[in-house]
Amino acid sequence: MGKQIITLTVNGEKHEVAAEPRELLVHTLRETLNLTGPHVGCETSHCGACTVDIDGKSVKSCTMFAAQADGAEITTIEGIAAPDGMHILQEMFREHHGLQCGFCTPGMITRAYRLLQENPNPTEEEVRFGIAGNLCRCTGYQNIVKSILAAAAEINASKEAAQ
């Protein structure tokens, strides 16, 4: 069976790509579109290093065929950054030491981005539950949770200031 043409809107940019029917979305993103933020970790959906945002939901891109994403709006870590610098989540991960080796960080931040869309003012328990599908071998999660809570506080403070 040959490749099929699919259309993906990734980080606001529309792409037509040829993908094998069995090709995983993470490989299309990394190898065809050269977006290497989503990492290939466990390839079994356990680690979350490949997490991307698809049509408003966090999805582990190693569990989805590229063809299943035909027509979808996809945001990777590369699309989360602000045009003039880092997204507040990225800033808070840096400021609060929410990363060590960095392997899980793109998936963790992408999941946290959606989590804060779903729940703009989460408790510590809600953050821990919200990122439970993303594993980190280095940090012990304390600083990741602190980073997400700090980002939520900053986002909420800037919304209040704008009103």
Automatic annotation (TrEMBL):
GO terms for molecular function: 2 iron, 2 sulfur cluster binding; metal ion binding; oxidoreductase activity. It comes from the Bacteria. InterPro entries: 2Fe-2S-bd, 2Fe-2S-bd_dom_sf, 2Fe-2S_ferredoxin-like_sf, 2Fe-2S_ferredoxin-type, Beta-grasp_dom_sf, Diverse_Oxidoreductases. Residues 4-80 form the 2Fe-2S ferredoxin-type domain. Keywords: 2Fe-2S, Iron, Iron-sulfur, Metal-binding, Oxidoreductase. Pfam families: Fer2, Fer2_2. The keyword Iron-sulfur applies. This is (2Fe-2S)-binding protein.
